Amino acid sequence: MRLNKLTNVKMENVKLNGGLLGCIQDLIVNETIPYQYNVLNDDVEEAPKSHAIANFRIAAGEQKGEFYGMFFQDSDVAKWLEAASYSLILKPNPELEKILDELVDLIGRAQQPDGYLNTYFTVAHPDKRWTNLRDMHELYCAGHMMEAAVAYYRATGKTKLIDIMSKFTDHMLTVLGPEPGKKRGYDGHPEIELALVKMYKVTGDEKYLRLAKYFIDERGKEPHYFTIEAELRGEKKKSTGQDDMWSTYQYYQAHLPVREQTTAEGHAVRAMYLYAGAADIARETGDEELFAVLKRLWDNVTKKRMYITAAIGSQSYGEAFSFDYDLPNDTIYGETCASIGLALFAYRMLQMDPDSRYADVLEKAIYNGILSGISLDGKRFFYVNPLEVNPEACEKRYDHSHVKVERQAWFACACCPTNVSRLYASIGDYMYSTSTDGEIYIHIFANSSANIALNGKNVALNVKTRYPWDGNISVKVNPDSKGEFTVAIRVPSWCGEPSIRVNGQPVNIGEHIEKGYVKIRRVWEPGDEIDVVYPMKAVLVRANPKVRENVGKVAIQRGPMVYCIEEVDNGKGLHKIIVPKNVEFKEVFEEGLLNGVVTITFKAYRLKDWLSDECYSFAPNDYEEIEVKAVPYYAWGNRGAGEMMVWLMSNIDTTG
Fold first, then answer.
1. Helix or strand or coil: residue 650?
2. Residue 319 catalytic?
3. pLDDT tens digit string along 317-374?
4. Dihedral, CA of residue 341, residue 345, residue 350 and residue 353, to nearest 10
5. Catalytic: 415?
6. Distances in Å between the alpha carbon of 305 and those of 45, 264, 459, 607?
7. Which listed residue (319, 388, 439, 643) is catalytic?
8. From the candidates 415, 564, 566, 643, which is the catalytic residue?
């Protein structure tokens, strides 16, 4: 099996032209990235102190002071630098480029003579470098800085940060590896694996690929490295009365060698970064065995452990997976970074196996589980993304304390905000792919244009659509000269009655569909047009009965968008609303609401409050008919604190 089937069309050759994704990208570039730079410099009063850039000045000997923040605070700077670099690709800005140049220079001055780069250890614990790979994120921070180096190079053509990280990699190779005298260690928080592959693809230097493959292959082997290094630190084994996810190393995805893992365990973000890195290794080395492992893990995550919004990580304990079909709505963790990690994993699997099931999850994350992590003004963020919120429970119950009812200006642990920025700034990387067989794949639909190199030919695509608000998509195909090739268009899993025409002539979808993509092969001429109609209407979605929390409940989905109801539209007591079996939806685009969204209204029933204040009664319940308004889930919480629900009661006899 050939694993390098597709190559993505880079964002440098893709332009978003308005529409929802275009507006989000503009928001990131014009509002969020400047705001986040101010936060990193401690210039936003309402945001928790970051000190992240100051830590580099202290490490460089240019400012007095102590290290402040999480021990992985460097990664906030790296992810911001990556996002800002993508911003330069989208919108050249000499002032911003100067800021990036100066920041890269500062990072270089903070690097130690032997190549080591980590401000926490340089400033606070220079004697403890490489002594706790399990917990202290040295390799995680290095990975994010490598990703920043590649993005900075893409944006500016400047290699200084790549050179810095090359020197750091050379240092790592003197410390870590299977050779005698080295530590057989690997990261407790996966991330560097995918970053090393990015460095390899830019530089062509095999040292990055070899190190990434070593990290994947060594993980979880016995004798267990995390146990060895803990003993060297004099750390006593935890005694909890029973094994927990830390002592058994499930939290770190190191409970088993990667190739022996069959279920997604432990910290959800770490799992996704590990799988994404392993996918890169499988692709670059043609490792079919590893790819088969990843397919099993993909199925476990997306079929049994993923929320309807593409959130993952069902428990706050360990920010982790729990067990199959355990998907509580109100105590969910659903970290924004976890959905981003899932998108990274999906995108990589899609490049090896062009199957719409990967693109469907990617799309679901982009429009739901990730997008909910940022406010409409681009300056507030969710770490946790619940599917049900009762503000009183969040205030008074410890098991709900991780759930915030409004987005925050920043966090002490601020991994999510800059992660959102880098994802949406680079969204053009995820939209189109090509194959060596002469195929152009369209994965993500948005008002956009793309210039695509295909087997010596240049093909310009011009896509006009209001997606995701409606499913009408016009694709103008303009090759630089007449020629034969394939345009493969994804049919989303939510669409039941797709229709495609080429120059007005219908395409027999059944004859041309392969793994969810309609493949249209013909001799294309400049000006040819593909008209796609994916009828988009609100529908009810039900959960597998094994999901205990959602038995007897329904969710509303319209196209790729999951919907929710909020207190601001429907009053308190959302849990008492019941959707009738024969519900009829009214769908209207409201320009002035939530920056413009399609809202859904419908007749439903509300369980009436009792006259008695007793907890229990033998008397029958009574109901009243009401009108309910639902809005896209990603936009909840932008109009003040209040209740919110995705899954609603249904299928109840309301006659008495």
1. strand
2. yes
3. 999 999 999 999 999 999 999 999 999 999 999 999 999 999 999 999 999 999 999 9
4. -170
5. yes
6. 39, 8, 40, 31
7. 319
8. 415
